[in-house]
Amino acid sequence: MAQAVAFDVLSDTQADMVDLDTALSALAEFGTADALFVNGDLTANGRVRQYRELFAHLAAAPHPPALFTIGNHDFYNHRTNRVSIDRFLQFTGMPGLYSAHRIGDVKVLRLGTLDGSEKSGHYVVLGADQLAWLAAELDTNVSAPVVVLSHHPLPHTVSGTYDDPVTQAPKMYSRDYAEADQLLTLLEAHPEVLFLSGHSHWNLSRADWFTRARGFAAANTGAVQTGFGPDGRGGERPHDGPFNQGLRIVVEGAAVRVHALDFVTRAVVHTVEFSADKTGASEVDGVTWVEALTHRGAAPKISRS
Ligand SMILES: [Fe+2]
After folding, report:
1. Superfamily for 5-298?
2. Which letter does DSSP use for residue 60 in this model?
3. 143-192 pLDDT tens trace
4. What Å distances lie between residue 240 and 245, 254, 262, 304, CA to CA?
């Protein structure tokens, strides 16, 4: 029997330390997972003091070893790409903008933009080397599934990224990746992939928070800071009131369960399960907060793959 591993996923903290503390406290309520993924927009503006504050709060709260991806907000310091990327690497300790890791039997691949200036008209430019590296990592993967972490959503995957201007935000999320077509083509050949994206802050209560329609699995990672939803005119607007969401993922062999969690109401919003070696996915009803957050693993360590 494969060893079960559990991952927590937060994104878009954007200097909201009160909600971060709440989320970390909730995730550790019944014992910590095996790894924490912080999927971009760690800071509001990529400032040193914001990184210091973030890591002080992380250090003060029980949580498992963490992996981080860079988000567009982490470039909003009016400095060069180099400064923002070096700052991100210095504070997070990540080995580069992109890297491969192994947690138990699960391969985890981090992606990151080489250019956060947005001068290209896109948030994300992966570059030929990163795309070739990703293709090689997927082709040589012997585990199932493989988790791919990237801050920005891909077109026609999760909430907000579809074309309907009433229920979606095509003005916002159709051009996040310069190489969207190449990345989608690559991922579509790998049904074992679970692609995790944040950035939109759209509510995990939506039915389109998760999809496997494109062959691979894609899940919205919610947001710690401020919720957003459609404005009915192809754009988006913020939610009123408190908002704080993330994921708990449990992998056992080829079986994957993804729990969408609301840290404000301490409730399981959705649970889906799928098998990395089969098509389709199914919604699981009635999963309780305790059931979602109770994990009995053997605490495997994160290692470079
Ligand atoms: Fe973002």
Report:
1. Metallo-dependent phosphatases (3.60.21.10)
2. H
3. 689 999 999 999 999 999 999 999 999 999 999 999 999 999 999 999 99
4. 15, 39, 15, 41
Q: Note the pLDDT of residue 108.
A: 97
Ligand 1 geometric centre to CA of 229 (Å)? 14
Residue ranges for the chain with pLDDT beneath 50:
none
Domain-wise residue ranges, the chain = 5-298
150 alpha carbon to ligand 1 midpoint, in Å? 10
pTM of the model: 0.96
Distance CA 66, CA 7 (A): 10
- Return d(Cα 17, Cα 2) in angstroms, integer: 36
Would you state the pLDDT for residue 47?
A: 98
Q: How many CB atoms lie within 10 A of CB 284?
A: 16
Q: 34 — alpha (psi -120 to 50), left (phi > 0) or beta?
A: alpha
How remote is the CA of residue 105 from the centroid of ligand 1, in Å?
A: 30
Neighbour-count burial for 14-44, b at 16+ CB within 10 Å, e otherwise: bbbbebbebbbebbbeeebbbbbbbbbbbbb
